[in-house]
Amino acid sequence: MDILLLQQIMIAALKTGTPLLLIALGELVCEKTGVLNLGQEGMMLMGAMAGFAGALYTGNLFLGVTLAILAGMAMSLLFGALSLNLNTNQVATGLALTIFGTGLSSFLGGDLVGSTIDGFKPIAIPLLSDIPFIGPLLFKQDLLVYLSFVLVAASWWVMHKTRVGLTVRAVGENPYSANALGIKVIRVRFLATLFGGAMAGLAGSYMSLAYTPMWMENMTAGRGWIALALVVFASWRIAYLALGAYLFGFASILHLVMQGLGVDISPNLLAMTPYIATIVVMVAISSNALAQKLSTPMSLAKPFDPKVH
């Protein structure tokens, strides 16, 4: 394999992993507060549809991204109202949100199927993009990829170096102790849920405005579910999350790489690679119950009632 082919594979893996990174980052922060939102797929689809519709009708890609983020936040607001205010079961509510988002995006985007737009284009950063091998890989990407780099770095800094991050972790580990210290647990969880929705919407906009600038029903192809597994795979650590997202991105394009290399394997079988990888990862993680217990936020998916002491 020559160096140019390897570079192109890595660029493709980075692009494919970006939506996974964005949506998984939002879910990681959400889960750090103890909220498990299984509605990622539905929120991402709504973001993809809203973003594409906004860009198509206005001709403004940035307005499309804004609408996608707002759509994701609206979906997460619905989840928060049910699971945080009314204390409905988080797992059931998240599953219902995915079903709702999948159906609603198909209904509202029915007339948009097959439409295309000029999406985000790669922007080369002067001097840095000329660095051999690394330059085109990291410094010749579209704006949403650059934004993902910034969001990962900013999220890591906030979670590990600020009082906000300490508050988030405290709420996720023991909400009742956090409440006794005067922390507004429901407010913190609601804000984290909204952040997760915004990131899901942003990930959806990347799919329809940059990765494949068009709208198709169910175009996220299960990426919301993979993102949920990715958070567990990363043990709720942002650095591992970024690495895992790009590894899953590589697994997603592996069938194209293998076909390009002339490997005589059914393309349909190779296309199953990212989903097989998800299953393998989850089985491997589940085999070490102690490590999983130590890394999992203690109050994950557990309701909080401020009236209970």
How would you explain this protein's 3D organization?
The structure is a single chain. With 309 residues, this protein is mostly helical. The chain has a domain at 19-224. Helix content is 71%, strand content 1%. It has a two-stranded antiparallel ribbon with strand order 1-2. The chain is globular, with a radius of gyration of 20 Å.
Helices and strands in order, then pairings?
Layout: H1 3-32, H2 40-58, H3 61-85, H4 90-108, E1 123-124, H5 134-138, E2 140-141, H6 143-161, H7 163-173, H8 175-180, H9 185-211, H10 223-233, H11 238-260, H12 267-270, H13 273-286, H14 289-295
Antiparallel strand pairs: 1-2
Helix pairs in contact: 1-6, 1-9, 1-10, 1-11, 2-3, 2-4, 2-9, 2-10, 3-4, 3-9, 6-7, 10-11, 10-13, 11-13
